[in-house]
Design brief:
about 220 residues; mainly alpha; 5 strands; 3-stranded mixed sheet; binds zinc ion; single chain
Length: about 220
């Protein structure tokens, strides 16, 4: 490999590492990052803003920190991870691909909200099983590779949904998707709750005034 290719590779790795750190330090981590990604107006981003996000989109799939693994195959003791396929490793998603991912994830989220479950279909899903030692001393790892990158993204998303789905909600007041802190939380922010409360109060007062007016008219008549 040439020196130039090597340095480009190194630069790519550095950027990917930074992107992973950004995702991990997002409030609420992976879930927080996905929620933010779903609501980002991708077409409004400048080219440099997009590049920053593109590294994050790629890293979301590549991340091997193993937080969601155990859930799929707990009985066998495997950790399950999503990694990109061979040569695709050093490729960033295009803005169009990210838009497709965003649209698909939003549709799946809507279905999940509606039915409390959602199906993900994976054509040509490959599972690669490694012996202990590669990612974990004790356990082997099941690595997931799909033909399309978007599918690896969905795979990760499916795990996030299984873990935190009941807390991913849409605010009925401002339509923002947010991560609830409490089970009984309805609105994304006390601001939205206060807005709804004051509107209800105003409406109740209006209804009360109408009633009073009617009563007043009756009284005058009688
Ligand atoms: Zn809200």
């Amino acid at each position: 490999m040439t020196a130039k290719a090597n340095s480009m590779r190194e630069q790519f790795r550095q950027e990917s590492k930074k992107a992973r750190e950004r995702i991990q330090t997002t409030p609420d981590g992976m879930v927080g990052w996905v929620i933010r990604f779903l609501q980002t107006d991708l077409e409004a981003l400048t080219p440099s803003e997009w590049t920053v996000l593109a590294f994050e989109v790629a890293s979301f799939v590549d991340d091997l920190t193993g937080r969601y693994g155990g859930l799929v195959a707990t009985e066998s003791g495997w950790a399950v991870e999503a990694v990109p396929k061979g040569t695709q490793h050093e490729r960033l998603p295009s803005r169009q691909e990210a838009l497709t991912i965003q649209k698909s994830l939003l549709a799946q989220l809507e279905a999940y909200w509606e039915k409390a479950y959602v199906g993900f279909t994976f054509p040509q899903l490959t599972l690669i099983v490694t012996a202990p030692g590669a990612f974990d001393e004790q356990r082997g790892t099941v690595v997931v590779a799909a033909q399309q990158k978007i599918k690896e993204f969905e795979y990760r998303f499916a795990h996030l949904l299984a873990q935190s789905g009941q807390y991913i909600r849409r605010c009925p007041e401002c339509s923002k998707i947010y991560l609830a802190i409490r089970c009984d939380q309805l609105y994304c922010h006390p601001r939205c709750q206060a807005r709804v409360a004051s509107r209800k109060w105003r409406e109740a007062r209006k209804a009360e005034e109408k009633k009073e007016k009617r009563h007043g008219a009756k009284r005058r008549k009688g």
